Amino acid sequence: MPPDVHRTMHGNIPVTWVDLDGPLTGTLILGVGMRDEPAHLAGITHLAEHLIFRAMGDVIPVHDGVTSTHTVQLYATGTPDEVSAFLSTLTEVISSPAFTEDDLDLERKIIAAENPVRFGPNAGLLTYRYGFEGVGQGHAGTPTLASITLTEVTMWIREWCVDSNARLTFTGPPPPALKARLPSGLAPPHQWARPLLEVPTIIGSDKSGVAISLVVDEDISPFVRDALRVELEKSLRTHAGLIYSADTEITEVEPGLDQVDFVLDPFEADVAKVVESAVETVRRVAHEGFSPQAVAHSASLCKTALNFPSSWGDHVDALVTTELIGGSLLSPSDWIERATRLDGDELSKALRRSLGSLIVTYDEETELPKDLADRLGLAVDDFVAAELVDAPRRGPGRRWVGNWFSVRDWARLDGTVLYEHIFGETRRTRLDDVVVAGRFGDGSVFLLDNRGRGQTIHPILWRRGSGLIKAILAAVPEVRHRDFSWHDEPKGGC
What we know:
Elements: E1 6-10, E2 13-17, E3 24-30, H1 44-56, E4 62-67, E5 72-78, H2 80-95, H3 101-114, H4 125-130, H5 150-160, E6 166-170, E7 201-205, E8 210-217, H6 221-239, E9 243-254, E10 257-266, H7 271-288, H8 292-306, H9 311-325, H10 332-340, H11 344-354, E11 359-363, H12 372-376, E12 379-381, E13 387-389, E14 397-401, E15 406-414, E16 417-422, E17 425-430, E18 434-439, E19 445-449, E20 454-457, H13 465-475, E21 481-483
Parallel strand pairs: 2-6, 7-11, 7-12, 18-21
Antiparallel strand pairs: 1-2, 3-5, 3-6, 4-5, 8-10, 8-11, 9-10, 13-17, 14-15, 15-16, 16-17, 18-19, 19-20
Helix pairs in contact: 1-2, 1-3, 1-5, 6-7, 6-8, 6-11, 7-11, 8-10
């Protein structure tokens, strides 16, 4: 028999709990995550999480924090008194944040060591679909993290960490000694981003391997994920020997919709074959139907995972998260009931509805057959920061002479549009799309646009290049200027 879900209040903070056996886990969930960060403050929520824990000092119970696309969850497991002391101290620190520059420097180094790749621009599937805003921030990287100031972190905490934007959850009755208090206030509203890609698209990525992404109705997305993973592994690994693993991820991206991602790790020489086989497998299954084995596997995984009593603790956290960001959520019992009556036709229909949202990414270092995208009916997005255009030459130039060539490059700024003519091609960058202008110590500037695409402008490559950089920075709002001198200095070149 499923446990009862209890609701109460602790001061002004809503509390949700279920009574489970074992040590008590208490969690403070804050309705702020990566989706809420402007590009010039990317990573600030995770940085705030680290600083809050550092300011708490020594903590006795088992504890941790998780910053996700939508929320921050800070939790401890132990005796009721230990959990009570943890949450009480935690909210004291949040209510009166006081950090030092040394704290800031240390936690930035720790975050960089945790995941060095994310410490720079690192566009992924969410960013390709939604850009460098909203849920797209979840896969965008944190190139400005080392330029975030103590004042910015403190203001971020005060803006978002208020009682109306918080929830407490427990795996037992709330401890009597609990004294958790947060400042009163209303947090800013969450914004849902709209997709930038409206048709099935293939994208060259700086990440290795191949990935498939679909947007699926949230009330069936876990079943589609597990069943389609079976079909992809059967086709690409068991039958063809093209991949050695397949991982999945689900993210709520719009009300009622989840993005379901499949990351396929191919043997290096077979990237093109993996792309073709993966797309053909997804479309074939959508139209011919899932195998009975895939449907049964998907249902079995759901029932196995949710029949554990501990799943109700996870459910309570997911329930209040959904309330914070908007939407509804099925209970574990509801999911098990759905799994019991799951059929392949229902899964196939859901997959067919998602085919228009298909995104395929591949390692851009791999050369694909030129006709592959056309054969698969996929639009091509090369994800470069500047678009090729025809434009008459204007502005200062620089002549490059080699053994077999002589070319003249030029650059000019026309209002908020930057034109660069390089090796016979003219590229256009719209500066009103730039969300970060990172300034390097050598005078170069890195421009990151709202799709997470970047390029570096080097003053040394142009006559009067310093003036060009100055004009570019003047065309980008100052709040988007960030210090990039802590990055490796950019290499010369185009």
